[in-house]
Amino acid sequence: MARYLLGEPTAVLNASMVEDSPGSRADVSSTATLAFAGGATARLTSSALSAGFNLHARCERGTLSVTNYLFPFVYHSLTVTPARGAARTEQLYGGGETTFELQLRAFVAAVRHGSPFATTADDAVANMQVVDGIYEAAGLGARGGPRAAQGLGGSFNTPIPE
Question: For residues 41 and 55, what is the distance between their CA atoms, to the nearest angstrom?
Answer without folding.
Answer: 14
